[in-house]
Design a protein that fits this description.
The complex is a heterodimer of chains A (about 270) and B (about 350). Chain A is mainly α and about 270 residues long. Chain A folds into 2 domains: about 40 residues; about 230 residues, MetI-like (MetI-like fold, Orthogonal Bundle). Chain A has 14 helices and no strands. Chain A is globular. Chain B has about 350 residues and is of the alpha+beta class. Chain B folds into 2 domains: about 220 residues, Rossmann fold (3-Layer(aba) Sandwich), CATH 3.40.50; about 110 residues, Nucleic acid-binding proteins (OB fold (Dihydrolipoamide Acetyltransferase, E2P)), CATH 2.40.50. Helices cover about 25% and strands about 35% of the residues of chain B. Chain B contains 9 helices and 19 strands. In chain B, helix 2 crosses helix 3 and helix 2 packs parallel to helix 4. The chains are: A mainly alpha (about 270), B alpha+beta (about 350). Chains A and B meet through helix 10 and helix 11 of A and strand 6 and helix 2 of B.
Chain lengths: ~270, ~350
């Protein structure tokens, strides 16, 4: 008996709809970005991306992404470890709160930090007295990005840690291994692909974050403008070549991440099967 | 009282509660040096918890454990000198067999040459020489267990704990491994405690059995002792293949107390053909064979006597009994559980009693 009919008309209709959707939603816009970026010639493109403000925004984006990934790697590892290896009251609440950034609008996240560290805040006098600037400065951008990407790594790790269980860790502990030895030699080899996958997702999101960063940045050219913010600024100044040239860089970065993502996902799946 | 100089492990009043579940309730027992102890009980009886508390993987709510005369509650798991074999072996999936066994040695800063020598020695001991570079997933269940065993023994622990060591293995290999393990433990001479829910396993392998139920110890003793003289209703119902009967209907037990409930095991029931000699006619009953099942080494008969179904065994060499046949049935002894549900007494058939004076 044949349950699946692979040669059927339904299959071709579905393929057609998917292809049409992908072309309108992805391929055409991406092509348009590249074409617009290059419409004034390659020299103009080169000028646009080597402009000092452009370079500074690329630098800032890289900096913010690196710091965010480091912070969230540490936090993600600890959080996943805590949630899968310990029993305590309020565990459900913690894991729910950790996922909050996924459901909350980034603009609101930005506003929350604005209220927490801005002029209206009760800790503002303290910050000012110690000359600590968070709002409309790079720390604010980093804070906002960290917040938005908070759950990305821990969410990848928790299911893997749950599946592998803790018997191997107990066995190692019984043989006298300390916590650091257990983590580096027993636990981490299990989660390394999931961890890298989380890092990739986190970087992708960190590079592209607009909403929360926009609220906190203050849009200071060359100082607090990340790539997405710089693109918006160029676009609003009718510098289409510049805006789309910068966009094309972000797109290239996204494609690299997409490839990495698929590679890691594949490795991780193989790992879980064994 | 056990001879104190020989006692190696001693648990005193160990209790542990998980939420509302009492996993260990005032557990006390001691283990002599070099002995193999079987903790036997149904699942959920708290036997694994006792093992994990001993190893230091769980903390007891109260009570104290002494190993070699020293209290160990404050000593972390890794420093207690205990080898542990997990139910699913918990081999390090990312390490080769060699690195699995060498792990504890490396942690304890053994020299490279010594590690190589020790691992070679252990691989030979468990009969896996040549498989050093394999990964756990490339081994059979039995081989994995051998690796787990070698790994547990690597740092020369003084006490070996095994959690359901045969549960994850095919029935066929299990019996073979049981004998292998028994021999190996004798050879190494290490004090060992293993947990099992399988009474055959416990009876066959252990020097001493501790039967647990609902977090309490029901009975302790040698396998023969515990099997033949169960002292609590739980042990009576748990060991062997017990069947509850109404003993007042059987001639051999007319004088026993009527308000007790009775249990009998197949090995105490003799079934004879009508033409075979009948040594105790006064207390022999008549029955009808309802089912005959071949059990490999014996025939298992289901016989109806006074409307009750009894299970009995019959040797293969004897003349065959057929379904529907009328037979003589003789009950040698039954276990009576007192009406209080606590005491157990053995009642022997009246004719046998008279015979033995």
């Amino acid at each position: 008996m044949q349950v699946r009919n692979d040669k059927g008309i339904i299959k071709w209709i579905l393929i057609g709809i998917s292809a049409l959707f992908l072309i309108t939603m992805l391929v055409l816009p991406l092509l348009y970005v590249i074409i617009t970026a290059l419409r004034d010639g390659f020299a103009a493109y080169q000028n646009a991306v080597t402009d000092s403000y452009a370079l500074k925004s690329i630098g800032l984006t890289v900096k913010v992404t690196v710091i965010t990934v480091i912070v969230n790697s540490v936090f993600g590892l600890f959080a996943a470890w805590l949630i899968t290896r310990f029993q305590f009251r309020g565990k459900k609440i913690i894991s729910t709160i950790m996922d909050l950034p996924l459901s909350i609008s980034p603009v609101i996240a930005g506003l929350v930090f604005l209220l927490t560290f801005g002029r209206q805040s009760i800790i503002y006098p303290f910050l000012e007295a110690h000359d600590i600037q968070i709002i409309f400065a790079q720390p604010g951008i980093i804070l906002a990005t960290v917040f938005v990407t908070l759950p990305f790594i821990s969410r990848e790790l928790i299911p893997v840690l749950t599946v592998i269980g803790n018997e191997e860790e107990e066995a190692a502990a019984l043989m006298g291994a300390n916590g650091f030895q257990i983590f580096t030699q027993i636990t981490f080899p299990h989660i390394r692909w999931a961890f890298l996958y989380g890092v990739v997702l986190c970087s992708a999101r960190a590079m592209g974050e607009f909403g929360a960063v926009s609220v906190l940045s203050g849009h200071l050219r060359g100082l607090t403008n990340t790539m997405p913010l710089h693109i918006e600024l160029l676009y609003q100044g009718f510098d289409f070549t510049g805006a789309f040239a910068m966009s094309s860089i972000l797109i290239v970065m996204a494609v690299i991440i997409l490839i990495l993502r698929n590679l890691l996902e594949y490795r991780g799946k193989k790992e879980l099967e064994t | 009282m056990p001879d104190h100089t020989q006692t190696y492990v001693e648990l005193k009043h160990i209790s542990k509660t998980f939420k509302n579940f009492k996993a260990a309730d005032d557990i006390s027992f001691s283990v002599e040096k070099g002995k193999l102890i079987g903790l036997l009980g149904p699942s959920g009886s708290g036997k694994t918890t006792i093992l994990r508390i001993l190893a230091g993987l769980e903390t007891a709510d109260s009570g104290e454990i002494y190993i070699d005369g020293k209290p160990v509650s404050q000593i972390p798991a890794g420093k207690r000198g205990i080898g542990f074999v997990f139910q699913n072996y918990a081999l390090f999936r990312h390490k080769t067999v060699f690195d699995n066994i060498a792990f504890g040695l490396k942690i304890n800063h053994w020299k490279k040459g010594d590690i190589q020598y020790r691992v070679d020695e252990l691989m030979e001991l468990v009969g896996l020489t040549g498989l050093e570079e394999r990964y756990p997933k490339q081994l059979s269940g039995g081989q994995r267990q051998r690796v787990a065993f070698a790994r547990a023994l690597a740092v020369q622990p003084q006490l070996l704990l095994l959690d359901e060591p045969f549960a994850a293995i095919d029935a066929k290999v299990r019996k073979e491994l049981r004998e292998w393990l028994r021999e190996l433990i004798n050879q190494v001479g290490i004090t060992s405690i293993f947990v099992t829910h399988d009474q055959d396993e416990a009876v066959e392998v252990a020097d001493k059995i501790i039967i647990t139920n609902h977090g309490r110890i029901e009975q302790t003793g040698s396998p023969v002792e515990v099997y033949n003289n169960p002292r609590t209703p739980f042990v009576v119902q748990f060991l062997g293949n017990p069947i509850s009967i109404d003993h007042t209907r059987f001639k051999g037990f007319r004088d026993t107390t009527a308000d007790a409930s009775a249990v009998i095991r197949p090995e105490y029931i003799t079934v004879r053909k009508k033409n075979e000699p009948c040594p105790h006619p006064a207390t022999t009953e008549e029955g009808i064979v309802e089912r005959v099942a071949f059990r490999g080494n014996v025939m298992e008969l289901t016989v109806r006597v006074h409307g009750q179904h009894l299970t009995a065994y019959r040797q293969l060499g004897q003349e065959l009994i057929h379904e529907g046949e009328n037979v003589n049935v003789f009950l040698q002894r039954i276990y009576l559980i007192g009406a209080d549900g606590e005491s157990v007494t053995i009642a022997v058939d009246e004719s046998l009693r008279r015979e033995n004076g």
